[in-house]
Amino acid sequence: MRIAIVGTGYVGLTTGACFANLGNDVICVDNNESKIEKLLNGNMPFYEPGLDELVKLNVKEKRLSFSTDIKEAVAQCEVIFICVNTPPKENGEADLSFVETVSESIANNMNEYRLIVEKSTVPVETGVWVQKTIEANLNGRVEFDVASNPEFLREGSAIHDFMNPDRVVIGVESERAEKILKELYKPLSAHIVVTDIRSAEIIKHASNSFLASKISFINVISRICAQVGADVTQVAEGIGLDRRIGKDFLKPGIGFGGFCFPKDLSAFVRIGEKLGVNMDMLRAVGDVNEAQKLYFKKMIEDHLWNLKNKTVGVLGISFKADTDDIRFAPAIDLIEMLIEEGVTIQAFDPQAMDNARTVLKDIVYATDPYEAAKDAEALVIMTDWSEFKQIDLLKIKSLMKRPLIFDGRNIYSPEKMKELGFQYLSIGRKPVNVEALKTKY
Ligand code: UDX
User: Fold this and answer.
1) Same domain, 178 and 102
2) Is 83 labeled as catalytic in the residue annotation?
3) What are the two backbone dihedrals, phi and then psi, of residue 83, each rounded to the nearest 5 degrees?
4) Which residue, 86, 122, 127, 256, could crosslink 197 as a Cys pair with Cβ 3.0–4.6 Å?
């Protein structure tokens, strides 16, 4: 099938490359000329494991191309996926202006039937607006359908998640649209959930809000565990084995980040409130997430005493491992809070250093974890990169002014840290070689 993907961000580029890899002819369109230029030169606009190879392979096989010309893409492709970004506005609502602009452009360039598919995460009833916008610009010239096909791609495992979906959700309101999307997803032989458009739009926000709720839930439990010296990892295992709960997304940490959970949660809260629904429950998920960062910062303060002029090493800036994305990253907030207190930060991240430099101007960028630890009063783990789990901790200890580690992602085992002689504090687990201070929250 010939497919147009409008928007070459995390969702659009991955979706385009994967559809091409399934044998479709895909044109990825973006109005950002420099981004398309980079892609035409074989350079990826962001880090996503395996994407570079997948794009290059499909470009070589002539199944994947890039263009700034939406007219050509609409003229050639029967299915058009809207994958433009829907950033949060000041009040938390999603900014849908890019969706509207693209809908107009599609309508203005349509000369025969087209299926326009919302893949960007959009508030429920956006499909109605896309329909109206296209109708208003088409004046009945040609037939079309709108559909919703939300993505469930996690950064760092987006290709895997596309090729191995738990389910494919298609929100349609015509047999023709349903048939086309079922045909398109057939090679994945995945469970296809067919709904109306509004239900499909809600599924995405509800899914992300639920996953975010699980994380805030375990982070609340981690604080109870910390106060009584219990072990949140054991609690998470004990509850996660109940198949109704499930073990995933029960890892305590410094809170969730990224351009999805924080944004989708606040958008969903606004959607509910505008519909007159009390959204306190989901508001609390966001509040817990903010509080978790403050809780971790206080833990550092409680054990370092005065922060001013102290040097602290930071490992990890991206919002999670296997991505260079720092959007809404808890590490950014925490580093800014520590700088506020007069701390000198020396940080290392395997992938996110360039992105971090655009935001964090007055920190020292280390070339590796050891340089970040050198002469530091403490070392703080803020992202769970697997490479941090393999570092030579005895070498780290020899480099630090004081063998004190705050592990915001519980990547190390307390037993091991005890053996190595570290003072070690983590989330929801007993401190090692240091007396537990009752951080009240
Ligand atoms: C998420 C959804 O998982 C995905 O389905 C949706 O399409 C987009 O949003 P993503 O934001 O890429 O994906 O990352 P995810 O792996 O979900 O993690 C989100 C945040 O939660 C990260 O900051 C991560 O560190 C944190 N997290 C995740 C935890 O703190 N604990 C966990 O157990 C899992």
Assistant:
1) yes
2) no
3) -125, 30
4) 127
CA distance 155 to 201: 20
CA separation for the pair 136, 316 (Å, rounded): 48
| Domain-embedded: residue 202 | no
Q: How far is the CA of 41 from the centre of ligand 1 (A)?
A: 31
Task: Indicate whether residue 316 lines ligand 1 (CB < 6 A).
Answer: no
Whole-model pTM: value is 0.94
pLDDT tens across the length of the chain (441 residues): 999 999 999 999 999 999 999 999 999 999 999 999 999 999 999 999 999 999 999 999 999 999 999 999 999 999 999 999 988 888 888 899 999 999 999 999 999 999 999 999 999 999 999 999 999 998 778 999 999 999 999 999 999 999 999 999 999 999 999 999 999 999 999 999 999 999 999 999 999 999 999 999 999 999 999 999 999 999 999 999 999 999 999 999 999 999 999 999 999 999 999 999 999 999 999 999 999 999 999 999 999 999 999 999 999 999 999 999 999 999 999 999 999 999 999 999 999 999 999 999 999 999 999 999 999 999 999 999 999 999 999 999 999 999 999 999 999 999 999 999 999 999 999 999 987 666 555
Does residue 237 share a domain with residue 89?
no
One domain, residues 191 and 236? no
Q: Helices 97-108 and 126-138 sit at what angle, rounded to 10 degrees? A: 30
Which residue has a Cα nearest atom 26 of ligand 1? 256
**Close Cβ partners of 269 (under 8 Å, ≥ 6 residues apart):** 92, 279, 282, 283, 286
Residue 265 CA to its chain's centroid (Å): 12
What domain count does the chain have? 2
Return the structure tokens found at 254. Answer: 């410094």
158 CA to centre of ligand 1 in angstroms:
11
Same domain for 117 and 6, yes or no, is yes
Extract the runs of DSSP E, i.e. beta strands, from 307-438: 311-315, 344-348, 364-365, 378-381, 404-407, 423-426
Q: Which atom of ligand 1 lies closest to the CA of 215?
A: 31
Residues 6+ apart with CB under 8 A from 411: 381, 384, 388, 389
Of 203, 177, 178, residue with least CA distance to 124: 203
Dist. CA 295–CA 136, nearest whole Å: 51
Of 195, 210, 244, the one marking the end of a domain is 195
Is residue 289 within 8 A of residue 218, CB to CB? The reply is: no
Catalytic residue among 28, 77, 83, 260: 260
Pair 54, 27: CB distance under 8 Å: no
Structural domain harbouring 38: 2-195
Torsion angles phi and psi, residue 117, rounded to 5? -115, 125
Ligand 1 pocket: which of 153, 261, 324 to mutate (most atoms within 8 A of CB): 261
